[in-house]
Amino acid sequence: MIEAVKQLSYNAKRPNIILKDYGRNIQKMVEWIKGIEDRHQRTRYAYTLVEMMKQINPIMKESEEYNQKVWDDLFIVAGFDLDIDSPYPKPAPENIGRKPRLLEYSTNKIRIRHYGKNIEVLIDKAIELEDEAEQENAVVTIARLMKSFHYIWNKETVDDALVLNNIDQLSRGKLKALTDRLKEEGMPQQNQRRSNGGNGSKHSGGGRKNFSNKRRK
Questions:
Q1: If you write DSSP's letter for every residue of 142-178 in order, what string do you get?
Q2: What is the pTM (predicted TM-score) of this model?
Q3: Which structural domain range is residue 162 located in?
Q4: Do 67 and 151 fall into the same domain?
Q5: Could you identify which of 11, 41, 82, 202 might form a hypothetical disulfide with 78, taking C-beta atoms 3.0 to 4.6 angstroms apart as the criterion?
Q6: What is the per-residue pLDDT across 42-59, written as a single tens digit (0 to 9) for each?
Q7: HEC secondary structure over 65-103
Q8: Is residue 66 part of a domain?
């Protein structure tokens, strides 16, 4: 390695620099390492050279990806003709300079854009529910979520009937009986429970009254 450093000199007539980030001197060191006959010795010098290559880019954070990149760069500078014991597999020459694969966009058709695809998925799940009470609770929750999406998209409030019509449309008519009933009766409030009919809160209030009377006695 010391002999290689002594022989370093810039000459514009030399071959082009393969990776300009490292400069001509690193490239000359790589060529010198390739000429070492002993494989074990070549590997030792390769490790030393990789550490020197890291110092050229000190702002880079030490990471597994960065370490592998530097070793890949070493093989690229060597023209993939460097027989050493590398901690990473030698990169394939055909992968260098290859254009990235084009991003495939989703081809799923969204029927009502401002609600998004996830609303359609939730409605399909609601259709599968067999319990009527669970299905109604699911549809009411979805309707409230759709109202919030509608407001974000259009910056205006929307009535329940329009949202329920959209649910009927997105469910392909499979929830029509339920959406028609909700339009007729009105959607329950968030703190209202249809199954209890409000009796639970009334009973609870009576309990507090009796407890208060006992304390007075």
A1: HHHHHHHHHHHHHSS---HHHHHHHHHHHTTTTTHHH
A2: 0.43
A3: 101-193
A4: no
A5: 82
A6: 999 999 999 999 888 776
A7: HHHHHHHHHHHHHCCCCCCCCCCCCCCCHHHCCCCCCCC
A8: yes
126: exposed, middle or buried (Cβ count in 10 Å: 0-12, 13-18, 19+) = buried
Query: 122 in the Ramachandran plot: left (φ > 0), alpha (ψ -120 to 50) or beta?
Result: alpha
Query: At a CB cut-off of 8 Å and minimum separation 6, what does 166 contact?
Result: 112, 115, 146
Per-residue CA distances from 144 to 41, 68, 123, 159 (Å): 71, 50, 13, 10
**Among candidate residues 68, 75, 66, the one with its CA nearest the CA of residue 26:** 75
List pLDDT tens digits, range 59-117: 666 678 888 889 999 999 988 989 999 999 888 888 776 676 777 666 567 778 888 88
Does residue 136 sit in the same domain as residue 57? no
Q: Which residue has the tokens 């014991």?
A: 85
- Dihedral (CA of 78, 84, 86, 91) sign: positive
Name the token pair of 101.
């694969």
